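Quick check before the chapter quiz. The format below is the same one you will see on the exam, so make sure you can read both the input and the output lines.
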Amino acid sequence: MRVSNVILSEPPAQPDPADPHAEDLALIARLNRGDDDAAAAFEVLYHKHKDWVANLAFRFTGNRDLALDVTQEVFMYFLRKFPGFELTAKLTTFLYPAVKNVAIAQRKKASRFASNDEVLVAMPAGDPVDEATRAGQRKAELAQVMASLSDGHQEVLLLRFVDGFSLQEIADALDIALGTVKSRLHNALATLRNDPRAQRYFEQEDTDD
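Here is the expected output.
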């Protein structure tokens, strides 16, 4: 099976599954058996999960081109698992460490060639700002609060509320104890609740609804 042909082809028309995890298991079983339509099974898995992988890769790299490279590499890594791959959790739970590790490696590699000019940020002018700009400023403040958290606390918070992982899925993806996940999440949320910048953001979100 040629990975490049699979990844670059158009997405197949597929109905929305009632149980996405069950569909993944069925597709993986076809890949393990080496059925005649194994390439099509991989294609469905790719197009089903590629956006999540790319967005996660961008979270770690901050670069769209690098995120696309990470996406390709992660799915090639996944394909090399067959035959004989056994999925014991959700596919996103399995893929998360691979995306994280590949993305961090790509980011470090790219940073060796980045110029200092690429990290300069323009400061806002002192002119009156419109509501959209104020909203952007509030989100920037929230990002600053997030940045004050440790990497581990940020990671748990994003997995829970951005990726929708359960607490146990977070524990499995990060290979840490469930109690550690709960502790990090509790502390991260407490930091957000107690920081005035985060409070202003959520208060404004409530008034906008």
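If your answer matched, good. The chain has ten helices and no strands.
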